[in-house]
Specification:
The chain has about 450 residues and is of the alpha/beta class. About 35% of the residues lie in helices and about 20% in strands. The strands form 3 sheets. Strands 3-2-1-4-14-15-16-17 form an 8-stranded mixed beta sheet, with helices on one face. The longest helix has 18 residues. It comes from Rhizobium soli.
Length: about 450
């Protein structure tokens, strides 16, 4: 048992002063407000709940910064995807584990305490199943255990290359499952998750491009009570192709044909009509936004004002993992709205700070999407973050979130996940073993490329 004293702690959406948090067996045993610190308390200026990173493709961390070269014709998401496929075909299970551990370490250092791993690199490099069909998922689980980050594993069902049941391409061979083999994969993933403290399991039909309606209906029950995540309406070409196939836009088709509710997380959902946006909000589906990746890939701008006006909820993820930062994801989300609408403080409510609204909405939406908690609560997992105010000791608690997200003056200091202090002074405790392994893997991958 250990006790942490915070001069300010964000609890229940409000700032609590002089708070003592007692941790036992990975959970918050008690919360004492307006307390007097004991001599043995670990003391911090300010503590906030840990953030959920609701959408990650771990293997793509190995590509970060390596696709920023213009091709012979204009580049787009689709040309980037071709390069991504080429890279994905080269990685071994050992490579995956090393890259995922580096990534999850970086997430913890950034203030993310749980990750939703949208995991679709399933099979061997020739497309054949490993003897253990969940070999790659085991490596994701191992990276979670090594670093201590909470894991919501989202095995991806991927069977087709385009709308209407088009056969998969050669470049997709490591992703592909039948409904039957995906069922076997899910059985093994349940075993992996059961061995991880606080582990959660859901499913991720990759997209409407990657599964027929019949296949989609067949795999949905495999989620049990877990979350359901799906890529949707990320690119205008996807919208055009969906209309050509079905006569409906992607989000329109999904809402009309599938039981979309609060368990669903619609990743990107960028290109929607006003009616789709409001219908999605009213159904309770979470918008899984990845603002840095969406900007990097030239996806477009999510229609945040209409979505929020109708009670919609969103969370953030790092997707292609080109940048790992709670602050940068939230900042890019707000700045995209400002650029599109030529306005300021778009996401904030009247007389409310933008940083506060962004952070608290992302906490709630991300936790719902990954089936974790969004607050510091007695009896819940002890997942929280202390912020270093050394560069700006003059700030009030109300000003800290704006400074962290928009000004780069505030840094993450310490991070606890499941009660374990994993990050101190902004650095993960296992950096000395994780980083060299990652660097060796990267050197080998680039030499072979």
């Amino acid at each position: 048992m250990n006790t942490i004293f915070a001069e300010n702690a964000l609890i229940g959406g409000e700032w609590a002063s002089n708070t003592r948090l007692t941790i036992e067996h990975g959970k918050v045993l008690s919360i004492e407000r307006e307390a007097i610190p004991a001599a043995t308390d670990e003391r911090h200026r300010l503590i906030v709940p840990g953030m959920a990173n609701l959408h990650s493709h771990a293997f793509q961390r190995a590509m970060a910064g390596l696709t920023e070269v213009r091709g012979s014709t204009s580049d787009s998401f689709w040309s980037w995807r071709t390069l991504m496929y080429k890279f994905a075909l080269s990685m071994t299970p050992d490579d995956i584990e090393a890259v995922a551990a580096q990534l999850y370490m970086e997430m913890l250092e950034a203030g993310f305490t749980r990750v939703g791993e949208f995991h679709y690199l399933h099979h061997d490099r020739d497309g054949r199943h490993y003897a253990n069909i969940a070999e790659q998922a085991e490596r994701i689980g191992a990276a979670s255990a090594t670093t201590g980050i909470g894991l919501t594993l989202l095995p991806v069902f991927y069977a087709r290359s385009g709308f209407g049941g088009t056969a998969p391409t050669e470049g997709q061979r490591r992703f592909i499952n039948s409904v039957e083999s995906f069922s076997l994969l899910m059985e093994e993933c349940r075993k992996i998750i059961s061995a991880l403290p606080g582990g959660q399991l859901g499913i991720a039909p990759h997209s409407l491009r990657a599964a027929t309606p019949e296949e989609l209906r067949d795999v949905l029950p495999m989620a049990g009570g877990g979350p359901i995540h799906i890529h949707i309406a990320e690119q205008t070409k996807e919208v055009e192709d969906c209309i050509a196939w079905s006569g409906a836009r992607p989000v329109e088709w999904l809402l009309a044909n599938m039981p979309v509710d609060e368990r669903w997380c619609l990743i990107h959902a960028t290109h929607m009509t006003d009616a789709e946006t409001r219908d999605m909000a009213r159904r309770g589906a979470i918008a899984g936004l990845c603002p840095v990746t969406e900007a990097n890939l030239g996806d477009g701008i999510f229609p945040a004002p209409a979505f929020l006006e109708d009670g919609g909820h969103f969370g953030v993820g790092s997707d292609s993992n080109i940048s790992i930062s709670v602050a940068h994801e939230l900042r890019q989300l707000e700045y995209s709205q400002r650029l599109g609408l030529r306005s300021r403080n778009v996401v904030a409510l009247p007389q409310q700070s933008t940083g506060t609204r962004l952070f608290q909405e992302a906490l709630k939406g991300g936790a719902r999407a990954l089936q974790s908690q969004d607050d510091i609560v007695e009896g819940a997992s002890a997942d929280f973050v202390s912020l270093d105010l050394g560069a700006a000791p003059y700030l009030s608690a109300d000003q800290v979130l704006d400074q962290w997200i928009f000004a780069d003056t505030i840094k993450v200091d310490c991070v606890w996940a499941a009660g374990k202090k994993l990050v101190t002074g902004g650095l993960h405790g296992s950096r000395e073993t994780i980083v060299p392994r990652f660097q060796a893997v990267m050197a080998a991958l680039l030499d072979a490329g």
